[in-house]
Amino acid sequence: MAARIALVDFSKDQISFKAALQHCQIAQLPDIAQNKDAAFRFIDKEEPDFLFLHCDQFGEAEEELTRFFQRNVGCVPNHQFLIHNNPKPTFMMQAYEYGFEQVTDFAAWPLLMLNLFESELKKVKDNESTEAMTRDCQRALKHGNTVQLNQILKKMSDRGSYDYVASYNKGIILFQMGYYENAVKALEQSVLVHSFFPPAKNVLAEGYLILGKKTEAVAMLEELEQINGDFFDRKISLVGAYCDSDKMETAELKFKEAEILRPNSKRLIEAKIHLLFRTQKYDEAIRLIEVIDELGPHLALKLNDLGVRLSKTGRGKSALILYQKAHKVARSELKYKISLNAALAASRIGDHEQALSYINQCEKEYGRPFDKSTEVKNKILEMRHKPK
Amino acid sequence: MKSASDKGHPHPILLISNKQEKAKGIADTLEKHGYQVILSGNLYNGFQVVAQEMPHLIFCDAILTDGDVSQLYDRLQLHPILKDIPIIAYMPAVAKPVLAKIKNKSFAAVYIGEIKATILLEKVRAVLQKNTNFSPFFLPVEKLGSSENIDLFAPAKIYGLCGSNLVASSQINLKSNYKVECVPQDSAMAPFHTSFAVNLPEGDGWSHIIPLRRLGGPGRKWLDKLAQIPFETGKDHYAIYASSESEHYEEWARILKTFGIHLLFTQSWEDIQRTVQSNRVHFIFVSHAANSIFIEKIKAHLMLFRDRRVHVFSAAQTLENETYIQPYLRFPFPLPTFIDVCQALMLPIHKLRTGIERSGFKGIDVNFRFSTTLVGLDETGGVVRTSTRIAPGSKVTTQDKTLLTIFNSHDPLTITHATQGEKGYGDWYLHFRAIPAGSSKTIYWGKLLEKFNKA
User: Fold this and answer.
1) A7 interfacial to chain B (CB closer than 8 Å)
2) pTM over 0.95
3) Chain B contact for A86, CB < 8 A?
4) B174 partner at 20 to 30 Å CA-CA among A12, A257, A325, B295?
């Protein structure tokens, strides 16, 4: 079989799945990854196009695995399969939040796989297909190939009016690149074509929050919440959304609900920071930043705003400390913005050397100089040469 | 609607008897069991019918007014194509002179005594058992040296949009995960394709509700410009979740509520009946967990649902081949597919029809192009294997050069019947007729064999 498949078994009853597989009569069946480490190693090394996941529930480990898989090939519903003998609707819904449409049982999955493979493999090999473009986009983004990335994004735009997978993946790429307005447009297109596609709606709601469209964000998140109230990531987004809307009681309530779902998740701290920001407990919030693993775009935006405010009110050193902390935990695609703001803050307190160092770092993180970075750089150089 | 014969191949049987009443009785019995019966009152006419129709079995009285069964046998032995047609010789009682005549001839069977339906059927089945699904003249594709993959084109109509769904109709049952290309007859319009549709039985074929997002290809863009079909919709939308177990019900009810569908749980046939009578129920979903007694009751009362325009769809495998139950979703099914089906079944298709008629729009003529595998040819046409069902009587066309040369015509092929493949799930044999009605099968088959022998 020419396709690269990740076959992952996170279920408790791994033996019966293995036994069922032995009856499949599929030549060259890949090894089954039976734990998280093995699955991540395989995906990292082989960059598979297809994922078959056997699991009892769709929890934190399954979500992490899916995100990791999608970092290589994007989200294509026909490339992700769940194997479960008696899935509950809530299980299916939880998995659908990550674009898993196909759910199959022990008996049917080999036949389903063989039927789909013929057509899906053609698509993977055809560079003009949505599936191949989605994969190539993700890889171009991963390897910083912006020329290729822009070429593919242009092609994806052409089919966005009717292909929700293309516009969703385009939106995701633009989101990761920090082009929130265009990302929102692409995601809105995806939702227009497929009104019930939770992955697009979840990210779109986050995009709305970043663009300050709080009402739209809350409406979209609450609509999904009615269908599936067990999606942890959405609870976190809702805490941020209600904080932005000054509805602190509801925000607290959503925080508690999130806490019940995943009491040990580090993303709870992100939600806590939203709450602390709203109550202007900045010092406590900044202390917590060091504890979190990853900073999402909505919170990164708030930190940036706080940094700008501190810097503009003459507390440039505090702003720089904030930026340094935020930079450590920000997602890689968000780091350049923090570096840019740090350069401005350093420049404002007259530390031009540090400002230059930040702006160089910003351009490195972005991949190349861009309009805003060149403008800031020129300003710093001008200030440096001015007599004190 | 005409249902596809699930009883196997409708073998033509020639019945030669000069006793009209008895012949009619035998014919009725055989026809009830899916056989086609051709009656002949004497041997002379019998010979002509054999040459014309190439029956798969001849049931012949041993003694006739113009001859006897051994004469029939001898005459057929002289014909290279017809010599292998099995003959059952019939005698109401043992007659030694007759037995002496047929003694050294290879009859398929000799039936002596009063005709009893069970014995008759047993004998017929025993003779035809080697060819349950195919004609005994059937030539498999391996022997023909023809290409195996054949695309067929079935006529269809596109009527317009209903919300974010495309409404179309055809005589082909579009199946999930089975790609069908839609080719407009107007060559200025680009084709599009789909692998999903909700098929609602209507007339001799099906109405198709296809979510626009499930359509792809270059022709996708012109579909957005189609007009919305005007129709009135009610306020409350109810549906029934029929199962002997309540497992999964509450979760489905919560999910469907967000789509404006109120799902009601029913645990017995009486419950269903009451609910259907007191609410405007759009569809009944029979869960995979429903037990067999419950399912049998639903099956027995399908007419009630049809009369009340209530759709029934199912995840219970025993209902897979019921024509009125559309679609069958094998559990576990994809969540968006379930929701698409529920939403499509909420559309009042009869109101859509009225809307279409009122708008005066005649529809856009298209062809559904679907791939098949040629299994072989027989004395009337041939057999293709495919994953989808097509209504008997439908006309299809092909552009396959080999087939067009064989049939020496561009006329449409008529689907005579569909039989389910031995593997069961999702495998259909479509039997088609390529020769015009009234033409001699023996002449056609003789020419065809000659063509292949030369090749």
Assistant:
1) no
2) no
3) yes
4) B295
